[in-house]
């Protein structure tokens, strides 16, 4: 991996260059009416949100460096909420749709962890999903460090650091009046060739400066997370299995309004439903995001439903994340991004549930 | 053009056999033929309506024709039951793991079916008949709600006449013309002419029936690793991606639909 220094003023030039070949998405800030989350650990935590928006559609002055992950899950760029999986019984030669590849800026380490889960599902299994595969292979990932974190962030509880060290093409780490730019892949190297005027090899001092900043955010987050007593990742499978008959699932679902927002905002969730429609002579198969907290998720023809109660569905979600994936992939399908915590109108908090399950063993 | 994994192949309905008032066997002619191993399943498309998973009931040795025995229970199957010969449906697959016939050699095979659950077992029976010298005997025990609900009424007596094959049917509720056994299928397992120390149990039927048959087979001395269950779950993609058919650490579509009880016995609520 090569590391360079890129000045603040040159970041937009870097983006402009990427936008020539990609549908480039960049972070913009959405101000929150709440200025700071005062945490019991006395840390003062930011509350603004970031969205990834199309570079060509935002004002240059609105583009920011996102201090932590964006609101929407990264997976939404690779499998869309509702999209055509295929047409069928077309007599004429089937049309192949070409999409412009995406370049995603502001992807954080939690998002990269989640993409590994998505890759396992959509590139693995019996056969790879062709649409996901083509998007994923063509995409350019411009990751970045998190100099701050939100109240809901808990990546460090699962030993995921708030800064990426792999699984990206580029990584930006803010430092003084610019950024350290890691160039990790051949694809990124080729792009960097035409940017060489903007890039200066990073000095050892800059690299160690970045190390100190990273260590500082680690320490701050660890201090923040102390209050939640989140169980270690090595115990997750055991606690969800041993807690199968626990009353915690019912207790925690009392405030659930079945909106399924936790599932749709989750970056590791992947479930979908194939649904057919016909209009004006053509029949299409749609792939729609589905979620295991929706009451008909496991309903079969005839009406039988293995997950008929809400608490069963919550338990199922945890078994999927912390048992199924640990058995099949080797690690949990939770990256600690905290999106499910922020979005839940019932204040259902995965950190609290895991701790309660752990303590009730 | 790259293959789209969600796209079905065309298949023409050649013949429809009415098995019971609610169950029909659809004999399809898939465009370009279709190969599967017994126990594997397919996703069947009713164009514009949707897909549903079924395990073929025909002989896997025949690739030009594909039989699917289907009960009218939901949206897709209701539409399917209204179709006529000559109309076109779609098929996708085959998916999952079928019956491991190589492990059946030298064994007594006790097949227990319930209701329309005899459909996948019919395909298995055809496979076993084709290689009958590999097995000590094949015993079929089939339970149906009533005489009119029995599927393959003409085939079952034919099977009973075969060498090394023993067949017994029981109904939950008899009628005036019924002279066979009355009672749940679990009541006709203990007398099965097999050596339970060398027997494989193959079970397919409604979940409640599979549960009690499994318990009975365990009682009779069959080991959990020798009981094969055909697990039915909501399956949308068939490819281990859509997430609907999880059973513990498995997906029914990819790791099943045939599982041994040994694989499932420590998983909670498998019969729900």
The percent of residues in helical segments of chain B reads 10-25%
CATH H level, superfamily name of the largest domain in chain B: Nucleotide-binding domain of ferredoxin-NADP reductase (FNR) module
Q: How many structural domains of chain B? A: 2
The largest β sheet of chain B comes out as: 7 strands, mixed
Please give the structural blueprint:
The complex is a heterodimer of chains A (361) and B (272).
Chain A lengths: L1 E6 L3 H11 L1 E8 L5 E3 L5 E3 L2 E6 L27 E7 L13 E6 L1 H15 L6 H9 L1 E5 L25 E6 L2 E6 L2 H8 L5 E3 L2 H22 L10 H7 L5 H5 L8 H5 L6 E8 L2 E8 L20 H20 L9 H5 L6 H10 L2
Parallel strand pairs in A: 2-7, 7-8, 8-9
Antiparallel strand pairs in A: 1-10, 1-11, 2-5, 3-4, 6-13, 9-10, 12-13
Helix pairs in contact in A: 6-9
Chain B lengths: L8 E10 L4 E8 L10 E6 L3 E5 L11 E6 L3 H7 L6 E8 L12 E7 L3 H13 L6 E8 L10 H6 L4 E7 L9 E2 L16 E6 L2 H13 L7 E4 L15 E2 L2 E2 H4 L2 E3 H4 L8
Parallel strand pairs in B: 7-8, 7-11, 8-9, 9-10, 11-12
Antiparallel strand pairs in B: 1-2, 1-6, 2-5, 3-4, 3-6, 12-15, 13-14
Keywords:
heterodimer, A: 361 residues, alpha+beta, eight-stranded mixed β-sheet, three-stranded antiparallel β-sheet, 32% helix, 21% strand, B: 272 residues, alpha/beta, Elongation Factor Tu (Ef-tu), domain 3, Rossmann fold, seven-stranded mixed β-sheet, 15 strands
Provide structural commentary.
The complex is a heterodimer of chains A (361) and B (272). Chain A has 361 residues and is of the alpha+beta class. Chain A folds into two domains: 1-228, no CATH class; 229-266 and 293-361, no CATH class. Helices cover 32% and strands 21% of the residues of chain A. Chain A is built from eleven helices and 13 strands. Chain A has helices spanning 11-21, 109-123, 130-138, 186-193, 204-225, 236-242, 248-252, 261-265, 310-329, 339-343, 350-359; strands spanning 2-7, 23-30, 36-38, 44-46, 49-54, 82-88, 102-107, 140-144, 170-175, 178-183, 199-201, 272-279, 282-289. Chain A has an eight-stranded mixed beta sheet, with helices on both faces. A three-stranded antiparallel beta sheet of chain A has the order 6-13-12, with no helix packed on it. In chain A, helix 6 (236-242) packs antiparallel against helix 9 (310-329). Chain A is globular, with a radius of gyration of 22 Å. The N and C termini of chain A lie far apart (44 Å). The relative contact order of chain A is 0.16. The model of chain A has no long low-confidence stretch (mean pLDDT 93). The longest helix of chain B has 13 residues, at 118-130. The mean pLDDT of chain B is 95. Chain B has two domains: 9-95, Translation factors (Elongation Factor Tu (Ef-tu), domain 3, Beta Barrel), CATH 2.40.30.10; 101-230, Rossmann fold (3-Layer(aba) Sandwich). In chain B, strands 10-9-8-7-11-12-15 form a seven-stranded mixed beta sheet, sandwiched between helices. A six-stranded antiparallel beta sheet of chain B has the order 4-3-6-1-2-5. A two-stranded antiparallel ribbon of chain B has the order 13-14. In chain B, strand 1 (9-18) and strand 2 form a beta hairpin. Chain B is globular, with a radius of gyration of 18 Å. Chain B is an alpha/beta fold. Chain B starts with 8 loop residues before the first strand and ends in an 8-residue tail after the last helix. Chains A and B meet through strand 6, strand 12, strand 13 and helix 9 of A and strand 4, helix 1 and strand 6 of B.
